[in-house]
Design goal:
There is one protein chain. The chain is mainly alpha-helical. It is built from 14 helices and no strands. Helix 6 packs across helix 11. The longest helix has 74 residues. The chain is globular.
């Protein structure tokens, strides 16, 4: 019997690899604390209305670096694990699992988190405006239409978008299965080429650059809307779709990433440096800008689509930045598979707690930011204190209120018994 290019039956993956990818996913969740604290202390205009009176260029660097790989890795791993779920439980089982693990937590936690973040945001804005505690809704920035913005998904936008991507997965899955085996083999070969060759990575990056050219500095940033624009669906959907296909080629591609993770990281750094250079060119136009416009103009003329001059430079910034996103994502997958795949109790504990940390960390960083506002401390000292206290509060609340409760079962899919005094504590 001929082997199918995209096997329906699960091929047992080494346990080491699953531990590695679980640890990687958890690390990306924990990095949310660093990212959302750094936003408060940015030297350049912040994407959020609240910010401290002290700032540091290091905060800007942390935000732009973490943003380059954090969500791309999330979506790649999300697609990877969705394929694993389909092969283990079928499309229906996968959909039920995603509704239970993504949809239900979103429905349960979004209302209180939105309310808490709204109150803390207003308190922070009041501190900024009057250096006193209070709530003044007029301080909330207005939308372009002149009204105050409505409910947003906030940092839970990832859960919201991933839920819909997972529920839509049966459509392309069924379409691929309906193709002749020869076409499936071609798709498999194309997937291998995309994930393992320089031209393949470029092919993955070009559509992201085209999308990102419409955003400042070529960086697609989530708006938090319950109806995200098509650009956000396409941008994140491409990483998710790659993750769906990565599972079928996990032995070939992940082995490649594990061998060459350091080279991939260095190439990603080169792309990131190019994006940073182009950002400075945009801020301080010189003769190089003219050359870039001419080069890109020759490319866009082929499409006969008139575009503003700013689009040209932002296309190249987006190309370099998203190139770093792909390369760093592959490098991180390889790094964790090679060096962080062995099961360790403390890493398993952090992985178990990461979902809870992802959900609750944002309002904590906001509240601590408001408390620290106005103190004559360096920005880096405030950042460090905010990160450490937020981490401590997240871990304490997880252990005391979540780990051994039905909430923990909701988030991790398994109920843990609280150990009795004197009993050894095991991560699993």
């Amino acid at each position: 019997m001929q082997r199918q290019p995209f096997p329906v039956e699960p091929a047992a993956a080494p346990a080491q690899r699953l531990h590695a990818l679980d640890n990687l996913r958890a690390t990306m969740m924990w990095l949310g604390i660093v990212l959302h604290v750094a936003v408060i202390y940015m030297a350049r205009p912040s994407p959020l209305p609240w910010h401290d009176d002290q700032s540091s260029p290091l905060a800007d660097l942390l935000v732009v670096v973490i943003h380059a790989f954090r969500m791309p890795v999330f979506f790649i791993l999300a697609g990877f694990f969705v394929t694993a779920l389909v092969q283990r439980h079928g499309l229906g089982g996968m959909a039920r699992n995603r509704l239970r693990r993504l949809g239900l937590p979103f429905a349960v936690f979004w209302p209180p988190l939105f309310a808490a973040s709204a109150v803390l945001g207003l308190l922070f804005l009041h501190r900024m405006a009057y250096n006193t505690w209070g709530i003044d809704r007029s301080l909330m920035p207005q939308s372009p239409s002149g009204s105050h913005p409505g409910p947003q998904t906030m940092h839970l936008w990832f859960l919201w978008m991933l839920l819909w991507l997972a529920l839509l997965t049966p459509l392309p899955w069924a379409a691929v299965r309906a193709l002749p085996p020869s076409v499936q083999r071609t798709l498999r070969a194309m997937m291998a080429w995309l994930g393992s060759t320089p031209l393949g990575v470029l092919a993955l990056t070009v559509p992201l650059a085209w999308i990102g050219a419409g955003y400042a500095h070529g960086i697609v940033t989530p708006g938090g809307s319950f109806l995200p624009p098509a650009a956000e669906w396409l941008h994140n959907g491409l990483f998710y779709g790659f993750g769906l296909g990565l599972h079928a080629l996990r032995k070939e591609l992940t082995a490649l990433y594990a061998r060459h993770w350091l080279l991939l990281a260095a190439l990603g750094m080169a792309c990131f440096a190019a994006a940073a250079f182009l950002s400075e060119v945009q801020a301080q136009p010189e003769a190089s800008t003219v050359a870039l416009v001419l080069i890109t103009g020759a490319f866009t003329d082929l499409l006969a689509a008139p575009v503003p001059d700013a689009w040209h430079l932002q296309f190249w910034m987006a190309l370099a930045y998203n190139g770093a996103s792909w390369l760093w994502s592959f490098a991180l997958i390889g790094l964790f598979l090679r060096h962080l795949g062995r099961p360790r109790a403390w890493m398993a504990y952090l992985a178990d707690s990461s979902y809870w940390v992802y959900l609750v960390h944002l309002p904590i960083t906001m509240g601590l930011g408001a408390l620290l506002y106005g103190l004559p401390w360096p920005a880096l000292a405030k950042m460090a204190l905010n990160v450490l206290v937020t981490t401590a509060l997240c871990l304490a609340s997880y252990h005391l209120c979540v780990r051994f409760t039905p909430v923990g079962a909701l988030l991790t899919g398994r109920q843990r018994a609280r150990p009795l005094f004197g009993d050894p504590v095991h991560a699993h």
